[in-house]
Structures are given as structure tokens and as C-alpha cells.
Design a protein that fits this description.
- The protein starts with a strand and ends in a 10-residue tail after the last helix.
- It has 11 helices and 17 strands.
- It has 2 domains: 276 residues, Spore Coat Polysaccharide Biosynthesis Protein SpsA, Chain A (Alpha-Beta Complex); 63 residues, no CATH class.
- The protein is α/β, with parallel strands linked by helices.
Length: 361
């Protein structure tokens, strides 16, 4: 069984730590390792380094090689330009389809936290075993919702099909990508929906055929490129043709169009968090909702429900009578915002383009 970790995002909502040249998945957000390094570590030793692949942008080649010396360099798949997740998954699974079309593959992401690692590994094993016996299926690894998030997709759970080694396998009743607030609240209250983490186990042939059926333009472009795979011209063709298709999210292109019998669902509480924004990171690390989450040299008086990250050893951050705040200090930017205003960070950074502050993005 192979695992591929996607690590090509830019992470604008975690600015000013996350920048174009070094996005969030390569930064030390939790402890002294990047979330990419943590994503690889939680697979070992059940997955050997030879069976772990990384898909990312060519701009991050040096960072990837430096952070993951245990992964063979031939297991790094570099996209020549940034597209959405749809084309990226099509490329990787198209390559795997040439190498081992029926071998189970786990699709994972580099910017998440998983606290229940033992359970996570157990789920991957059982999902892999199921796909080994049912190569024309896909198994979603989903999570019990903690709140009605509007930033995640939702999987509609069908009936319980089987239980193996304590892991329940459900039928698939549909998927909705990023519902509006009212719909998310309905999903959450019903108890019949799970968060779609973007984690799944399937075979390369299943995904390759799904692109052929639901996204033929991406499929044809991928077929053209991978026909040169393992030849001296592959990099040149990849650079020439990769950007010729539209950017589209994988959920929209493929997952929302699947037949219900194509998929099965595992839903568990693996202590998962998407740390795509500062308030999400705080929610992931706090032990209770009003706890402060701090890093570096920080001194607080009468401060609650705040995240304060200081990346300068020579400076002390002092905060007094501050509640519900995000304070992030880097060597060239100090960010101060209400926790409820974090969503505005992405727009602010986008507005820096073409200004004197562009270099800070």
C-alpha cells in the first residue's frame, strides 16, 4: 500500500508565518517540526519511506528535500505550476496507474493535525484491506463533526455495512462541499453527516477512470503527460502541458459526482484538525475554549481566549486586558487581530499585490 501526501498549498490564512516562499506546511507551527514532517512521521513504520510519496509545487523542491531526507527523491512529484487539487490528484494517480494500477493508495494532506495516531493507523490498515478486496471502490476516512463548520465538505452516511477489528464501515449516501451556514447546522444536528477530511483510500485505476468519466479534459491532458513518464522528456512535457487545464477542486470535479455504490465511509474521532487559519489552530491546540495558546517569549496579564505566537527570541510580547485576540510576531511583521476577524487576513494579503508590501506575502 502506498501513501501520497499533498503539500502544495500556500496557506494565506496563516500569514504572516505562512508565505509564498515557505507556506504553512513547512513551518514549525506545532512543536519543533513542520506539519509536513509530522504527517510523514505518523505513517512510519507501518509505511516504509519507499512507499510514501509527496506531491508539491516545484518551487518547494529544496525545502522538501531538506525536511524529508528519509524519503527517496524519486518519490517527490513536483507540479510545475500551482493548480487546484483536481489536476494534482489526476497527475499523481495517473502516474501510479502506470506503475501499480490495482494497489491501494492513501491520499493524505500535509497541513493537518491528528492526535489519535494509533487509531488513524488502524483505520488506514482496514481501509487498505477493504480496497485490496474491492479495487473498484473508494473508502472515505471521515470525522465526527465537532461543530457546524462551513469550511469543510460533509459526507452523508448510509447504513452500517460491516465492522472489522472495531472499525465500522458505512455505505455512502452523498457528499456536499462547503455548505452554507444553515445547511451546515442542519447536517450537524442530524447526526447523519461526517466531515470530509479529504482522506481516502482507493486504487489509481479507480481515480483515473473517474477523471475519464467526470473530468475528461483533465483526464486527456494527464494521459498525454504520463505517456512520457519515466522518459527523458517527462519534465519538459509536464512543464509544457500541466497548466493547460482548468483549476478545479477534486471534490467538485470527482467526489460530488460519484455513484453512491462506488464509495464506503469510515467515521471516527481521530483528533483531527485543519490548521488552515489561526483560529483553527487555536481550536486544535486548546484544552478548553477560553484557554490561551502561546508560543515563544510571551507574558500575559488578564488575557483569555487568545493565540499569541512570538517567533523572535530577542523580543518579549506583553499583553494586558486583551481577550479574543490573535497576535503573531515574526521578524518583519506583527499581526494583531480579533479572533473573529481572521477571515480578513487572506483578503488583506491579496491586496498587498502590486504594493510596497508585496514582498511580505
Amino acid at each position: 500500500m502506498k501513501a501520497v501526501i499533498f503539500a502544495g498549498g500556500t496557506g494565506t490564512r496563516l500569514w504572516p508565518l505562512s508565505r509564498k516562499k515557505s507556506p504553512k506546511q513547512f513551518e514549525k507551527i506545532v512543536g519543533d517540526k513542520s506539519t509536513l514532517q509530522l504527517a510523514v512521521e505518523r505513517l512510519i513504520p507501518e509505511f516504509s519511506p519507499e512507499n510514501i510519496y509527496i506531491s508539491t509545487n516545484n518551487a518547494y523542491r529544496q525545502i522538501i528535500v531538506e525536511q524529508l531526507p528519509q524519503i527517496p527523491v524519486q518519490n517527490f512529484i513536483f507540479e510545475p505550476e500551482k493548480k487546484d487539487v483536481g489536476p494534482a490528484i489526476s497527475l499523481v494517480m495517473g502516474i501510479f496507474n502506470k506503475i501499480s494500477p490495482h494497489e491501494p493508495v492513501a491520499i493524505l494532506w500535509s497541513d493537518h493535525l491528528v492526535k489519535e495516531i494509533t487509531l488513524f493507523k488502524k483505520i488506514l490498515k482496514e481501509a487498505g484491506n477493504y480496497i485490496g478486496q474491492h479495487p473498484n471502490k473508494i473508502v472515505f476516512i471521515s470525522h465526527k463533526p465537532r461543530f457546524p463548520s462551513i469550511n469543510l465538505g460533509y459526507i452523508h452516511l448510509g447504513g452500517l455495512e460491516s465492522t472489522v477489528n472495531g472499525i465500522n464501515l458505512y455505505s455512502f449516501a452523498g457528499l456536499k462541499y462547503k455548505p452554507d451556514e444553515d445547511t451546515a447546522k442542519q447536517f450537524f444536528a442530524s447526526g447523519a453527516y461526517a466531515w470530509n477530511l479529504g482522506y481516502f483510500v482507493t486504487t489509481p485505476q479507480f481515480i483515473h477512470n473517474a477523471f475519464k468519466r467526470f473530468a475528461p479534459n483533465i483526464y486527456k491532458n494527464t494521459e498525454k503527460m504520463i505517456s512520457y513518464y519515466d522518459t527523458p522528456d517527462f519534465e519538459k512535457v509536464l512543464k509544457r502541458d500541466y497548466g493547460k487545464v482548468e483549476s478545479i477542486n477534486f471534490d467538485n470535479a470527482i467526489l460530488e459526482n460519484l455513484d453512491k455504490d462506488d464509495a464506503r465511509v469510515i467515521v471516527e474521532d481521530i483528533g483531527w484538525s485543519d490548521i488552515g487559519a489561526w483560529e483553527a489552530l487555536k481550536e486544535a491546540l486548546e484544552n478548553h475554549p477560553y484557554e490561551n495558546v502561546i508560543r515563544g517569549k510571551v507574558f500575559l496579564e488578564h488575557v483569555t481566549d487568545s493565540l499569541i505566537y512570538n517567533y523572535e527570541d530577542s523580543k518579549l510580547i506583553v499583553a494586558i486586558d486583551c481577550d479574543d485576540k490573535i497576535i503573531v510576531n515574526t521578524k518583519d511583521v506583527l499581526l494583531i487581530a480579533k479572533k473573529s476577524s481572521v477571515a480578513k487576513i487572506k483578503t488583506l494579503v491579496e491586496n498587498f499585490q502590486g504594493t510596497k508590501h508585496e514582498k511580505l506575502t
